[in-house]
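Holo model, guanosine-5'-diphosphate. Inputs:
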Amino acid sequence: MTKQKEGNELTNKNHLRREKVVLAGCQLLTQSDERFASSMEELKALTETANGVVAAVITQKRARKDAAFVLGKGKVAELAEKVDELEAETVIFNGELTPSQLVNLSGRIGVHVIDRTQLILDIFAVRARSREGKLQVELAQLNYLLPRLSGKGKALSRLGGGIGTRGPGETKLEQDRRYIRRRIADIKRQLDTIVRHRERYRERRKRNQLFQIALVGYTNAGKTTLFNAITDAGGTAENQLFATLDPLTRRFQLPSGLEVVISDTVGFIQDLPTSLVAAFRSTLEEVKEADLILHVIDASHPDFLQHEKTVLDLLDDLDAGHLPALAVYNKTDKVDETFIPSPGMKAIRMSAKSDRDVERLKDEIERCVKDEMVYFEASIPLENGKFLAKLRTRAVVAEQTTNEERETISVKGYTFRDRPLHEQLKPFIREHGR
Ligand code: GDP
Ligand code: MG
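Output:
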């Protein structure tokens, strides 16, 4: 999950390897237990999103953060011990660390230490698809890095003071800073051009003929759990091939046999640092290409109504508000009271942990997909077997009967109106069928 900097490229090799992580959090007295717990839960989900495995969680309640180490001396020692004992590779702090805290903690704990902002940037970097998205993320990364480079320089010169701590090392940092400033200016110029010509970029058409479903919602809502449950993770060899290209997109079959594609998009984040808003939005551009949005809501979260509203507002902002959507109120196994889903939306209440509920969800998705299709009745000659097979995975075949005498098969079902298959079907449509 660590981001390696190589020349001017921020690469993300190794993002499939799972890194062992210890989480650390400081709860201020002004923060309610509930809110703190939910932010630690979110940090865990973010870590998993970045391919980390949480081995332990260390927290402390304090009146204020320690200026040098965030946590108290004893807690930091406990943290270092845990890291040792578990052979963890990385410590992630919930919150933003000052440049000097970063240096102090890394020195004291002896492994890679990052903060919540770096973790989020890492996730965005892996998920950014469009040119704009990649530039926005790099810009945010460089802006994050800049003050921390000088922090490192200062820490170094304070450390030994004098020979061996200045000179080439310091000069190198100066160069890096100058390079970074130039690169930031360059990125801003490029983004300016992209924004001015955005209309042209928007015309990009769908890459794929298959129906596209996008999972959206807050981090920790259960998107990835649902993604895996729906697609039966580790399933077909084809999906594994897909996985190496894009671990966030998979094919699956609806109960009728119709093949669709589902994507697990980057999750919304509570209290997203404002410096990351632009990068976050640009990683969600792909949502606009979806044919159906599954809006996953953690119904057990105390702020779920606010979360739901934030997501809907942003979808509107992204020009995706008009797309067909299904609200998935998840984690109902954790809520006892019944609540009323927001009016005017198609909705399902469920638990991603229940197989029966996942089947119900698939049925509901199929109903939503059918709403985007048109009914047909066709008569297809038996010799067109291949076309018939195609219909079964690219359309919904509701009923089929073989007519031996006429050597045809009558098919009743649903297709997507504006896709090539609909044209290919036209010669076989029975006019009186509808
Ligand atoms: P994402 O951030 O939206 O992808 O959320 P995840 O799928 O990673 O899930 C976050 C946490 O919620 C994980 O610990 C899941 O095991 C848990 N979770 C997901 N769905 C449910 C559910 O329906 N019920 C319960 N009790 N936990 C769930
Ligand atoms: Mg996820």
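Residues 45, 48, 217, 219-225, 267, 330-331, 333-334, 351-353 surround guanosine-5'-diphosphate (ligand 1) (CB under 6 Å). The CA atoms of residues 20 and 89 lie 6 Å apart.
Archived with the compound record.
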